[in-house]
Design goal:
The protein has helices spanning 4-16, 35-39, 47-54, 119-124, and strands at 27-30, 59-60, 67-76, 79-91, 94-100. It is α+β, with helices and mostly antiparallel strands and 126 residues long. Strands 1, 2, 3, 4 and 5 form a five-stranded antiparallel sheet that branches. It is elongated and about 80 Å long. The termini are far apart.
Length: 126
C-alpha cells in the first residue's frame, strides 16, 4: 500500500517535471535556391546546365518528367519557420520556364589575387 505522503510527493515531482521538453534542432531541409542562382538561368539551357546551376532537384515526378521541383524549408524549435518552392520546366532537354520563391542573394566577399585588385577597386580607380 502506498502511503498518502509518498503519493503526494511523487505527484508533485511528476508535475514539476512537466516544464522539461526535449531540445529540437533548427534544421534546414531541401535545396535552398537563391536569387543569384536563378539569375544565371537562361531559357534554352540543357538539363545538365540547370543541374549545375541549381543542384539536383528534390522532386522529379514520374508523371511530370519535364518539371523539376526544388523545395526548401527551415524549422526552428520543431516548427516550420520558412518554406520556399521553386520549379523549372523543360521541353525535351531544353529549359522553357521557371518560377517560384527564392532566398535572398548571398553576400559574396571578393578576395583579390596577389597583386590584383577587386572589381570595386578597379571601378574606383584603385
Amino acid at each position: 500500500m502506498i502511503k498518502p505522503a509518498f503519493a503526494l510527493a511523487l505527484a508533485a515531482c511528476l508535475t514539476g517535471c512537466s516544464f522539461l521538453t526535449p531540445y529540437k534542432l533548427d534544421i534546414p531541409q531541401g535545396t535552398p535556391i537563391t536569387a543569384d542562382q536563378t539569375a544565371k538561368l537562361k531559357l534554352g539551357m540543357t538539363r545538365s546546365q540547370v543541374r549545375f546551376v541549381l543542384g539536383s532537384p528534390l522532386l522529379q515526378d514520374a508523371f511530370h518528367g519535364n518539371r523539376w521541383d526544388y523545395v526548401f524549408y527551415e524549422s526552428k524549435g520543431g516548427k516550420v519557420s520558412e518554406q520556399k518552392r521553386y520549379h523549372v520546366l523543360f521541353d525535351g532537354d531544353r529549359l522553357v520556364g521557371m518560377g517560384g520563391d527564392t532566398l535572398p542573394a548571398r553576400n559574396v566577399t571578393v578576395i583579390p589575387a596577389p597583386g590584383g585588385t577587386t572589381p570595386e577597386a578597379a571601378k574606383a580607380g584603385g
